Amino acid sequence: MIVVADTSPINYLLLIDYIALLPHFYGHILIPPGVWEELEDARSPEIVRKWIAKAPAWLENRAIGGEPDPALDFLDKGEREAIALAEEVNAGRLIADESEARAEALRRNLTVIGTLGVLRDGARAGLINLPEAFARLERTSFYIAPGLIRSFLEEEATRFNPRQ
């Protein structure tokens, strides 16, 4: 499966030390130049800039074959390019967090997962503790609606205690 990622999931998975979930689940990840640039931008956290400076072999900076659809101009550069690349390579999955980008990707019939979904999958696979992962995420600038956290944690609790 071809997977394309936007900036935010890579950024936050690095900040909470769960970046290894991406190659575990997806093997090889494509990112467009706009995402690469956002990761190395001076405003990115130092840990992110250091990581992208020595990017792992499983991460590929892949140029898109032209300009993104002008209908995507309401999104930032990384999001526009990530959606364009996902469409171009017929990606099986786009990893993105921002609601407008996710909504647009879904309108374009792309399969989307976000940071929370990656963490949920990590918990389902027994690789991480979901409450701990969410606690780490809450210590960053990542916004999580309280109801969404509750929903994910209730689902996780039900998985371990099906009678609830």
CATH fold group of the domain at 3-116: Rossmann fold
Shape: globular
The oligomeric state of the chains shown is single chain
| CATH homologous superfamily grouping of the domain at 3-116 | 5'-nuclease
Give a brief description:
This protein has a domain at 3-116: 5'-nuclease (Rossmann fold), CATH 3.40.50.1010.
Would you mind describing this structure in some detail?
- Helices cover 52% and strands 9% of the residues.
- It has 164 residues and is α/β, with parallel strands linked by helices.
- The protein has a domain at 3-116: 5'-nuclease (Rossmann fold, 3-Layer(aba) Sandwich), CATH 3.40.50.1010.
- Helix 6 (99-107) links the parallel strand 4 (93-95) and strand 5 (112-113).
- Helix 3 (33-40) packs antiparallel against helix 5 (77-88).
- The model has no long low-confidence stretch (mean pLDDT 93).
